[in-house]
Specification:
Mean pLDDT: 91
Helix content: 10-25%
Strand order of the largest sheet: 7-6-5-4-8
Order of helices and strands: HEHHEEHHEEEEEHEHEHEE
Number of helices: 8
Largest sheet: 5 strands, antiparallel
Distance between the termini: 62 Å
Strand content: 15-25%
Radius of gyration: 23 Å
Structural class: alpha+beta
């Protein structure tokens, strides 16, 4: 059901591979599923696969965390049972969880490499109707985004999934070469960031070096330019040229600030401002 709902198709061989069963058993399982949920899947003789039916209604109630783990990491593609934890633990929850029907349309469009018609609600523009060409999910630690080419602005942008309404997968509509992910400079560019203990806030830099896995007093990370702002915000990295932030959360300072040249989402970077243009 996960494969059909979020990818848009499933084949007998997928069941054979996943569960180690024979092809005949996979055929019986698919036939049984069609009896349990009429209208959920249809057979496509041309593609020799079962595809999402027009009257799909999920049989299994998967929590969003399990679905996103399965989509992004391949974990937990089994029965949605509650698992007993080995040790007590708690973690801060996200602000919101994506609506699974919206997420399913987004991921099917990604997998099938086709555009997606959406109603989008932004902070600056309010409600707008757009066509986007999505190609990747992004987790910024608080909410999930989809990276896509926006036909309205003619730019590659991030869209918050919880702000997407009424998605429609535009199957059969062509995608232009300039809308493909390999044309997204911010996505294909890799930026190297040099993180060091904050010179002004740290009395014991060796503690920070150990906590952040530094070597010789520095941690070098490589990240897509499109994700740089999210990462710097999530880690509270001081991006001022003179490490002038004094917040108790600023354990790190960005040593090679020049690496940020050309990154477009630096509004998220703590303390970042454009270099002066004095002549």
């Amino acid at each position: 059901e996960l494969r059909v709902r979020f990818i848009g198709e499933i084949r007998r061989q997928d069941l054979v591979t996943r569960f180690g069963i024979q092809s005949a058993a996979a055929s019986r399982d698919l036939a049984l599923y069609k009896e349990l949920a009429p209208g959920n899947i249809d057979y496509d003789p041309k593609g020799k696969s079962y595809v999402l039916g027009p009257d799909f209604r999920p049989v299994f109630d998967f929590p969003p965390e399990r679905v996103l783990s399965w989509l992004t990491q391949g974990f937990g593609d089994g029965e949605p049972m509650r698992l007993k934890a080995w040790v007590a633990s708690e973690s801060p929850s996200r602000l919101t969880h994506p609506d699974l029907d919206v997420l399913a349309s987004v991921t099917r469009a990604i997998h099938q490499e086709c555009p997606l018609g959406i109603e989008y609600h932004s902070i600056s523009s309010g409600r707008t109707e757009r066509e986007i060409v999505p190609f990747a999910l992004i987790d910024n630690g608080l909410r999930w985004h989809v990276r896509a080419f926006d036909r309205k602005s003619q730019e590659f942008r991030d869209f918050v999934i919880t702000r997407i309404k009424c998605p429609v997968v535009l199957k059969g509509q062509p995608v232009a070469p300039h809308e493909a992910s390999d044309q997204d400079i911010q996505w294909t560019r890799i930026v190297e960031l040099e993180l060091v203990p904050h010179p002004a806030n740290m009395r014991n830099p060796d503690t920070i070096e150990a906590e952040y896995g530094m070597t010789d007093g520095m941690r070098v990370i490589r990240v897509r330019a499109a994700l740089v702002g999210y990462m710097l915000r999530r880690w509270n990295v001081d991006c001022t040229p003179d490490h002038s932030l004094r917040g108790g959360e600023n354990y790190l300072w960005l040593k090679n600030r020049q690496a940020l040249y050309g990154v477009t989402n630096l509004v998220l970077a703590p303390g970042y401002s454009e270099p002066s243009t004095d002549r």
